[in-house]
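Per reviewer request, we include the raw input and output of the structure prediction for the construct analysed in the revised manuscript.
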Amino acid sequence: MITTEQIDKLRGWFAGRLPDGLFEELTEITVDREEITVIGRIPAPRLAKDAPAAEREAALESRAQEFRERTREGRMAVAREAEHRFRRKVSWGVECDGRRTLFTHVAAPVMTRLRQPERQVLDTLIAGGVARSRSDALAWCVRLVQRHTDDWLAELRDSLEHVQRVRSQGPDTEPDPPPGTDDQE
Protein backbone atom coordinates (compact mmCIF):
# COMPACT_ATOMS: atom_id res chain seq x y z
CA MET A 1 0.00 0.00 0.00
CA ILE A 2 1.22 3.50 -0.82
CA THR A 3 1.20 5.92 2.13
CA THR A 4 0.07 9.54 2.07
CA GLU A 5 3.66 10.61 2.71
CA GLN A 6 4.88 8.64 -0.31
CA ILE A 7 2.17 10.22 -2.48
CA ASP A 8 3.14 13.67 -1.16
CA LYS A 9 6.77 12.99 -2.10
CA LEU A 10 5.74 11.82 -5.58
CA ARG A 11 3.57 14.90 -6.04
CA GLY A 12 6.43 17.12 -4.91
CA TRP A 13 8.88 15.41 -7.25
CA PHE A 14 6.57 15.86 -10.23
CA ALA A 15 5.72 19.46 -9.25
CA GLY A 16 9.43 20.24 -9.18
CA ARG A 17 10.33 18.23 -12.28
CA LEU A 18 7.55 19.13 -14.73
CA PRO A 19 8.45 21.90 -17.17
CA ASP A 20 7.05 25.31 -16.19
CA GLY A 21 3.79 26.01 -17.94
CA LEU A 22 3.08 22.39 -18.86
CA PHE A 23 -0.18 22.48 -16.89
CA GLU A 24 -2.18 25.35 -15.44
CA GLU A 25 -2.27 23.19 -12.33
CA LEU A 26 -1.09 19.72 -11.37
CA THR A 27 -4.48 18.42 -10.22
CA GLU A 28 -3.92 14.80 -9.30
CA ILE A 29 -1.32 12.10 -8.93
CA THR A 30 -2.46 8.56 -8.29
CA VAL A 31 -0.20 5.60 -7.74
CA ASP A 32 -0.46 1.85 -7.30
CA ARG A 33 2.04 -1.00 -7.58
CA GLU A 34 2.31 -0.74 -11.38
CA GLU A 35 1.58 2.84 -12.39
CA ILE A 36 1.77 6.53 -11.56
CA THR A 37 -0.92 8.61 -13.26
CA VAL A 38 -0.28 12.36 -13.58
CA ILE A 39 -3.29 14.60 -14.34
CA GLY A 40 -3.02 18.32 -14.99
CA ARG A 41 -5.43 21.08 -15.93
CA ILE A 42 -5.03 22.71 -19.34
CA PRO A 43 -6.76 25.84 -20.65
CA ALA A 44 -10.21 25.44 -22.15
CA PRO A 45 -10.68 26.33 -25.80
CA ARG A 46 -12.29 29.68 -26.51
CA LEU A 47 -15.85 29.12 -27.63
CA ALA A 48 -18.95 31.23 -27.89
CA LYS A 49 -21.07 31.01 -24.74
CA ASP A 50 -23.95 29.59 -26.76
CA ALA A 51 -21.83 27.01 -28.62
CA PRO A 52 -23.71 23.77 -29.23
CA ALA A 53 -22.81 20.73 -27.11
CA ALA A 54 -21.34 18.90 -30.13
CA GLU A 55 -19.03 21.83 -30.88
CA ARG A 56 -17.94 22.04 -27.23
CA GLU A 57 -17.27 18.29 -27.08
CA ALA A 58 -15.22 18.37 -30.31
CA ALA A 59 -13.23 21.39 -29.08
CA LEU A 60 -12.40 19.71 -25.76
CA GLU A 61 -11.37 16.49 -27.49
CA SER A 62 -9.13 18.30 -29.96
CA ARG A 63 -7.60 20.49 -27.22
CA ALA A 64 -6.57 17.38 -25.27
CA GLN A 65 -5.17 15.78 -28.45
CA GLU A 66 -3.23 18.94 -29.35
CA PHE A 67 -1.73 19.06 -25.84
CA ARG A 68 -0.80 15.38 -26.02
CA GLU A 69 1.04 15.76 -29.34
CA ARG A 70 2.73 19.08 -28.51
CA THR A 71 4.06 17.97 -25.12
CA ARG A 72 4.88 14.33 -25.88
CA GLU A 73 8.67 14.68 -25.97
CA GLY A 74 8.89 16.62 -22.70
CA ARG A 75 6.42 14.38 -20.88
CA MET A 76 8.24 11.25 -22.04
CA ALA A 77 11.57 12.59 -20.76
CA VAL A 78 10.00 13.15 -17.32
CA ALA A 79 8.33 9.72 -17.49
CA ARG A 80 11.61 7.94 -18.25
CA GLU A 81 13.27 9.61 -15.29
CA ALA A 82 10.31 8.85 -12.98
CA GLU A 83 10.05 5.24 -14.16
CA HIS A 84 13.70 4.71 -13.33
CA ARG A 85 13.39 6.46 -9.97
CA PHE A 86 10.06 5.03 -8.77
CA ARG A 87 10.04 1.71 -10.67
CA ARG A 88 6.52 2.24 -12.02
CA LYS A 89 5.15 3.18 -15.42
CA VAL A 90 3.99 6.78 -15.78
CA SER A 91 0.71 7.63 -17.50
CA TRP A 92 -0.67 11.04 -18.30
CA GLY A 93 -4.00 12.77 -18.54
CA VAL A 94 -5.56 16.21 -18.65
CA GLU A 95 -8.59 18.01 -17.30
CA CYS A 96 -10.04 20.62 -19.61
CA ASP A 97 -13.23 22.51 -18.79
CA GLY A 98 -14.42 19.70 -16.49
CA ARG A 99 -13.63 16.87 -18.90
CA ARG A 100 -10.91 14.34 -18.06
CA THR A 101 -8.94 12.63 -20.82
CA LEU A 102 -6.44 9.87 -20.04
CA PHE A 103 -3.68 9.09 -22.50
CA THR A 104 -2.26 5.59 -22.89
CA HIS A 105 -2.19 3.95 -19.50
CA VAL A 106 -1.48 0.56 -17.97
CA ALA A 107 -4.12 -2.15 -18.08
CA ALA A 108 -2.68 -4.62 -15.58
CA PRO A 109 -3.91 -8.21 -15.55
CA VAL A 110 -5.42 -9.29 -12.27
CA MET A 111 -5.54 -12.96 -11.48
CA THR A 112 -8.63 -14.15 -9.64
CA ARG A 113 -10.61 -17.31 -9.09
CA LEU A 114 -14.35 -16.92 -9.38
CA ARG A 115 -16.96 -19.49 -8.54
CA GLN A 116 -19.89 -20.14 -10.86
CA PRO A 117 -22.33 -17.62 -9.29
CA GLU A 118 -19.73 -14.86 -9.70
CA ARG A 119 -18.97 -15.91 -13.28
CA GLN A 120 -22.70 -15.85 -14.01
CA VAL A 121 -22.84 -12.21 -12.91
CA LEU A 122 -20.06 -11.38 -15.37
CA ASP A 123 -21.72 -13.40 -18.14
CA THR A 124 -25.02 -11.57 -17.54
CA LEU A 125 -23.25 -8.24 -17.99
CA ILE A 126 -21.81 -9.54 -21.27
CA ALA A 127 -25.19 -10.82 -22.46
CA GLY A 128 -26.77 -7.48 -21.57
CA GLY A 129 -24.23 -5.58 -23.66
CA VAL A 130 -22.67 -3.85 -20.65
CA ALA A 131 -19.29 -5.49 -21.27
CA ARG A 132 -17.51 -7.26 -24.16
CA SER A 133 -15.70 -9.83 -22.05
CA ARG A 134 -15.44 -11.15 -18.52
CA SER A 135 -12.44 -8.90 -18.03
CA ASP A 136 -14.47 -5.83 -19.07
CA ALA A 137 -17.35 -6.98 -16.87
CA LEU A 138 -15.07 -7.36 -13.87
CA ALA A 139 -13.62 -3.88 -14.46
CA TRP A 140 -17.19 -2.52 -14.70
CA CYS A 141 -18.02 -4.13 -11.34
CA VAL A 142 -14.93 -2.63 -9.71
CA ARG A 143 -15.83 0.85 -11.02
CA LEU A 144 -19.39 0.45 -9.72
CA VAL A 145 -18.18 -0.54 -6.26
CA GLN A 146 -15.63 2.28 -6.28
CA ARG A 147 -18.28 4.86 -7.18
CA HIS A 148 -20.51 3.78 -4.31
CA THR A 149 -17.86 3.25 -1.68
CA ASP A 150 -15.32 6.06 -2.16
CA ASP A 151 -15.74 7.32 1.42
CA TRP A 152 -15.47 3.83 2.87
CA LEU A 153 -12.38 3.03 0.77
CA ALA A 154 -10.74 6.33 1.82
CA GLU A 155 -11.34 5.46 5.48
CA LEU A 156 -9.91 1.98 4.94
CA ARG A 157 -6.78 3.44 3.27
CA ASP A 158 -6.33 5.84 6.20
CA SER A 159 -6.63 2.92 8.63
CA LEU A 160 -4.03 0.93 6.70
CA GLU A 161 -1.63 3.87 6.86
CA HIS A 162 -2.14 4.05 10.61
CA VAL A 163 -1.43 0.31 10.92
CA GLN A 164 1.81 0.76 8.92
CA ARG A 165 2.93 3.63 11.18
CA VAL A 166 2.21 1.63 14.33
CA ARG A 167 3.89 -1.47 12.91
CA SER A 168 7.03 0.55 12.04
CA GLN A 169 7.30 1.65 15.71
CA GLY A 170 6.93 -1.88 17.09
CA PRO A 171 9.49 -3.88 19.01
CA ASP A 172 10.65 -5.75 15.91
CA THR A 173 11.98 -2.62 14.21
CA GLU A 174 15.36 -2.88 15.96
CA PRO A 175 17.05 -6.23 16.47
CA ASP A 176 17.50 -7.43 20.06
CA PRO A 177 21.10 -7.54 21.27
CA PRO A 178 22.67 -11.01 21.19
CA PRO A 179 22.40 -12.98 24.49
CA GLY A 180 25.17 -12.26 26.98
CA THR A 181 25.98 -8.77 25.63
CA ASP A 182 23.92 -6.70 28.08
CA ASP A 183 25.56 -3.70 29.75
CA GLN A 184 25.11 -4.84 33.38
CA GLU A 185 28.25 -5.35 35.48
